[in-house]
Amino acid sequence: MTKTLLVLSGGHPYEAGPFAAFLESLGDWEVTHYVHPEAEERVAAGAADNADAMLFYDMPGYTFADGTVKTAAPSPGFKAALERRFASGRGAVMLHHAIAGWAEWPQWSEWLGGRFLYQPGPVRGDMKLDSGYRHDVDYRAELVAEHPVLVGVPATFPVNDELYLGEVFEDDVTPLIRAQHDYVAANFYSAAHAVAGRMFDNSDWPHPPGSNLVAWAKPIGAAQMVYCQFGDGPHTYANPVVRRVVANALEWTAQSYGRSA
């Protein structure tokens, strides 16, 4: 029986050809790929209800223009569709900038287990500074658990990717992979400065040290979710170990349907 994979993208730029090749590398899936705003409409209409696996590579709910950012919440139909999916035991894999999605919908970050902030704002009732980013970081990723998502993955492996200094709800997740990198403000740049046109700037941005987790698992209702920070661009898409991690995550979250964690 053919396995089905629903992929959502949009809201953040990426190279379509290399990303399509990445999707093809992840296993024998029948892939349906929707880009926002169509993605939100299709999910609200039921596209996520029966897909065996689901991959979020999207960052919806933002409009960037003239040095400002406007945010929006998803439609009630979209929210209800995801709640219905997770309640049924069908899980999802979230990649890279998905952690920044839906700034006006706190439930999204609770499901995912963290939040990337483009502007200072509240997270779980506390005010937080905007998050940090750093492109093209060469680092070693290190496994910190035994888990189905990590089967066949070496204990450490090299990655070149963008890293985030943001909010990770470590107490609520199962850590899988950590980055051997120092997560302090001096090693990142302010997202709010970037929005204002000041790229690669960390001045006047006293962000506290953060978590070095780059992959984790977390239950959502009756389902399982895996977040991987990997995925900024073609170099990471082509990394065979990253491909293995994401392929394993899709299989595991799909198999969670009908069983307990």
Tell me what you see in this structure.
With about 260 residues, the chain is an alpha/beta fold. It has a single domain (about 5-255), classed as 3-Layer(aba) Sandwich (Rossmann fold), CATH 3.40.50.880. Helix content is about 25%, strand content about 35%. It is built from 7 helices and 16 strands. The protein has helices at about 15-25, 40-45, 75-85, 105-110, 190-195, 235, 240-255; strands at about 5-10, 30-35, 55-60, 60-65, 70, 90-95, 115, 120-125, 125-130, 130-145, 155-165, 165-170, 175-180, 190, 215-220, 225-230. Strands 1, 2, 3, 6, 10, 11, 13, 14, 15 and 16 form a 10-stranded mixed β-sheet that branches. Strand 4 (about 60-65) and strand 5 (about 70) form a beta hairpin. About 45% of the residues are buried. The model has no long low-confidence stretch (mean pLDDT about 95).
CATH architecture: 3-Layer(aba) Sandwich
Order of helices and strands: EHEHEEEHEHEEEEEEEEHEEHH
Tally of domains: 1
Name of the level-1 CATH class: Alpha Beta
SSE layout:
Elements: E1 3-10, H1 16-24, E2 29-35, H2 38-44, E3 53-58, E4 62-65, E5 68-71, H3 76-87, E6 92-95, H4 106-112, E7 114-115, E8 121-123, E9 126-128, E10 132-143, E11 156-165, E12 167-168, E13 174-179, E14 189-190, H5 191-195, E15 213-220, E16 223-228, H6 234-237, H7 240-255
Parallel strand pairs: 1-2, 1-3, 3-6, 6-16
Antiparallel strand pairs: 4-5, 7-12, 8-9, 10-11, 10-13, 10-14, 13-15, 15-16
